[in-house]
Amino acid sequence: MKKHLKHVVVWTLVLAMVVLTGCGGGNNTGGTGTEPNETPEKSNEFVYAAGTEPTTFDPHFITDVNTARAAMQIFETLVTWNEDSKIVPLLAESWTTSEDNKTWTFKLKEGVKFHDGAPFNAEAVKYNFERILSPEVASPRKSSADMVEKVEVVSEYEVNITTKEPAGAFLAQLTNYNLSMLSPKAAEELGKEFGQKPSGTGPLMLDVWEPGKTLTYTKFDGYWGTKSTIDKLTYKTVPEDSSRVMMLKTGDADVISGLPPIQVEELKSDKNVDVVIAPGYRTIYIGTNMKKDLFKDVKVRQAINYAIDKKSIIDNVLRGLSIYPAGVESPAIMFAATDLTPYDYNPEKAKQLLAEAGYPNGFKTTLHTPEGRYPMDKQVAEVVQSMLKEVGIDAEIIVLDWGAYQEATTKGDVTNLFLLGKGSPAGDPDYDLTLSFGTGGKMNNSFYSNTEVDKLLADQKTSVDQEYRAKVLHEIQEKIHNDSPWAVLYYENQTMGKRADVDGFKVQPNEILDLRYLTRK
Fold it and tell me: Who contacts 83 (Cβ-Cβ below 8 Å, separation ≥6)?
């Protein structure tokens, strides 16, 4: 009872801090939200408020979902997921595969233009794949197209994409935002500046982006499909959860992401606001930096798992709006291993494991956390800090802005423990498991390496037998679960807010928000 009382006391303090934070401002892009709302009623101009600013508009360099959300208002992929979780045509009209399951022939939509006026065609598809795979370009998401051996132009609107081996996840991978189609003309003319002045094929196009100041989109009148209902969309960066909520309540924002669970019930009673809760692919976790000697022992990593009362975090901090975890994959993702035994809260077991690992009195370390990237992220980290303290792990919290945070966790030189989330851009575990747990993976921020896992990842990649892939992917997840590079905290439901008079807002399971067809009632 004493230990749970400590958690309640910590949470009470955190709650007080959240309430007080609502009185303050933040480093906002496009304003703080404290100015009067000047948007005319029934106008086609909208404001979206997010916790972090995008880092680039170059799809081949996007490494976080908030940036992807910003970029996918202007870019499109060859294929996409529909509302029934089936892959359907987008820029590609249809496709066939060869008998050896290695060559995919895509017929493309005709008459599609990029925002800069350049034509979308088979040459553009070939350029995009060659660009993301180019060593000179050095895309951090090169692995999203690694299975491709060659791309051949058959005719202006027909293209062959040949994979090195049969690839069971290839079609799903084409839905990934990293494989969005960008204008070859603009990419060649702008070089590294393309990320600030992008050109896609979508119904919105970037108007002005001055990082740290303003970010706006306008309608692309030359769009090949249904024209956007938006004349202007303003993106505002507001790190503090409560400040975004205030903007929503006052009408200074039409849509906000990262709605703090603590305020969901209050907002549900506000007739001017709609709360949007949608399933998602994201896993929130505490990562261990296995480059550091302290975390090389599996007993230490498992002790961290047992030390954290995930149910208390879900019930108290997140107000029941997340799902109790076991493995590293959310149950919303195909082939997720949902039968793994969770690391339930057991502080005595944690202390025992620490003693067996040579730390009977615990140890000191650091816990990095972002603020504003995930709902209640800093507050969750603070509660984790108190739980670790109870088993002897004294973790100093370090908060960084999102850009610096990504760099710190990627390099791993200064991190020990860190709070992060893992989504699934393609909805298939192959890609995100490879990125997060394959040796040398670009998002392997724990620097985890298991030769058996690497072999199994390679094995399932070359199979088109989905039942076989399911079996192998389950084995991979089980091995990772036992090795405990992460302490999985919860599977995140997506919590968003919008004004009650706003229609047309859609949330996809991979966390991409569709803001392109917003309307006012």
Answer: none
- What do you get for the CA distance between the two ends of the chain, in Å? 51
Phi, psi of 396 (to 5 degrees): -80, 130
Instruction: Locate all alpha helices (DSSP H) within 33-175, ordered by sequence.
Output: 65-71, 122-133, 170-173
DSSP category for residue 287 = E
3-state secondary structure of 507: strand
Query: What stretches of 96-138 show up as alpha helix (H) in DSSP?
Result: 122-133
Contact 516, 39 (CB under 8 A): no
* pLDDT tens digits along 19-28: 333 333 334 4
422's enclosing H/E stretch is: strand 417-422
Confidence of residue 41 (pLDDT cuts 50, 70, 90): low
Rounded to an integer, what distance in angstroms lies between the CA atom of residue 149 and that of residue 163? 5
Instruction: Give per-residue burial for 226-242: e unless 16+ CB within 10 Å, then b.
Output: eebbbebbbbbbbbbbb
Residue corresponding to tokens 């802005």:
401
Question: 3-state class of 39 per DSSP?
Answer: coil
Tens of pLDDT, residue by residue over 164-174, are: 999 999 999 99
Alpha-carbon torsion, ordered 109, 115, 121, 122, to 10 deg: -120
**Total Cβ atoms within 10 A of residue 36:** 8
